[in-house]
Amino acid sequence: MRAYLDIETDRAGKICVVGISVENNGFIQWYGEDINTSSIERELSNVKTIVTFNGDLFDLPRLKESFNIDLKAQCVSRDLFKEKKKLGIKGGLKDLEKMFGIERKTEGMNGYKAMFLWEKYKLHGNMDALNLLLEYNKEDVVNLIPLEEILESLREE
Fold first, then answer.
1. What is the tally of structural domains in the chain?
2. For residues 55 and 5, what is the distance between their CA atoms, to the nearest angstrom?
């Protein structure tokens, strides 16, 4: 079984959102105090492959450091950032989405702006900021699915 994963962090590097889409189980997301080791491990218990974008350098080490979850030891890591580099494709996730026609409602958002949305929520209780942050994270996760398929077909050519 395969899972797609993305995290968001605050400006101090603390994980504030975790989004996961597991084949046949759909999308699940935690934020703030609801993020915990047992929930993440339970969701990923049958997963053999974890798909991320730059997750080998960012998401997976942060999860290990913050929650003592070593996904690289438990699963095969498929980092689409590394795969696009091998194919000679330049750009980040949003660039690739545009290049391959993968739609995004949170156009113009990025990880840096996401940090400020979290702050607006934490400091001022701004639910619009939280909802936008959660939608942004969800798109980061679910857009990995078509991106993986596209990169796979390019690799086979």
1. 1
2. 8
Q: At which residue do the structure tokens 């504030």 appear? A: 16
Whether 157 shows a pLDDT value over 80: the answer reads no
Residue type, 155: R
pLDDT in tens, 92-114: 999 999 999 999 999 999 999 99
pLDDT digits (tens, 9 = 90+) for 1-52: 999 999 999 999 999 999 999 998 899 999 999 999 999 999 999 999 999 9
pTM for this predicted structure: 0.95
Pairwise CA distance, residues 96 & 116, whole Å: 24
Question: The CATH number of the domain where 140 resides is what?
Answer: 3.30.420.10
Q: For the residues of the chain, what is the DSSP string, one character each?
A: -EEEEEEEE-TTS-EEEEEEEETTTEEEEEEGGG--HHHHHHHTTT-SEEEESSTTTTHHHHHHHHH---HHHHSEEEEHHHHHHHTT--S-HHHHHHHHT---SSTT--HHHHHHHHHHHHHH--HHHHHHHHHHHHHHHHTHHHHHHHHHHHHH-
